[in-house]
Amino acid sequence: MLLYADLFEQETSWAHIKASETLMQTNGIPFSYYVDSLRVFRFVQGRDSIWRKHVLQTDEADPQWRQVMKVLGINVTFALSPQAKGKVERPYRWLQDRIVRTCAIEKLATIDEVRAVVRQEVDRYNNHQVHSTTGDIPSIRFERAKREGNSLFRPFVLPKPYTLAKDVFCLRERRMVDGYHKISLFNHEIRVPKVPLRKEVEVHLVPDMQRDALEIRIWWETQMVQSVVYPLNEFPGVHF
After folding, report:
1. Pick from 155, 106, 115, 111: nearest CA to 4
2. What is the pLDDT of residues 75-84, one digit of tens each?
């Protein structure tokens, strides 16, 4: 069963976070993710640090995507070898081949054009094709497993104290409130009047690519204490 498939111009943390949000709000929260050691998923000492003396060892820093998984209580397992990664990718090589061949035959060139092909192939595989191993149509088998309680997905519920999904599926930073009740974030000073001086706050960044805007939501302890919106073009050096 293909639970999510889409095309992006770049593979970014934000793209993976939004993909996870769509998957979970549709199907529920999975017990575990099985991923490779891409920077989006895992910090690896020696690869993800420019310093000769490494302060952080492998897995001692959590990338943005993994922070979201921790908030939701989802286990993450890493494929630690090319062979282990291949076990996941090999069964879906046919999908890549069909998409490439279709695009070549129909002379498709834009992401939107190819995205339509991806959706057609996913629909065909999930809802019309009998799986060669199980003998079932994947979507029927998946729904039956959920009805019978044999699924490793649990209902999607926001963890406390959050009431909005964008405070879970977001990019996170931590900042200290200075002596002027402000924090500095990517060359922007944001006033935080309700937080005591020298206290650390958690900053939730929610990019909106369609509106070309960045919402910044500041949390202290269990409350949101400030929310501001900036144009994305005011953060030219920040990669979302």
Report:
1. 115
2. 999 888 777 7
| Phi–psi pair at 231, nearest 5 degrees | -65, 140
Outline where 90-204 has alpha helix (H): 93-106, 111-127, 138-147
- For tokens 């144009």, the residue is 231
| Measured distance between the N- and C-terminal CA atoms of the chain, rounded to whole angstroms | 29
Nearest Cα to 189, choosing from 218, 209, 211, 164?
A: 218
The answer to whether residue 237 scores a pLDDT higher than 80 is no
pTM of the model: 0.88
Q: Give Cα 197 to chain centroid, integer Å.
A: 33
Domains of the chain: 13-153 (3.30.420), 170-234 (no CATH)
Distance CA 198, CA 175 (A): 9
Q: Do 84 and 39 touch, CB atoms closer than 8 A? A: no
> CB of 74 within 8 A of CB of 33?
yes
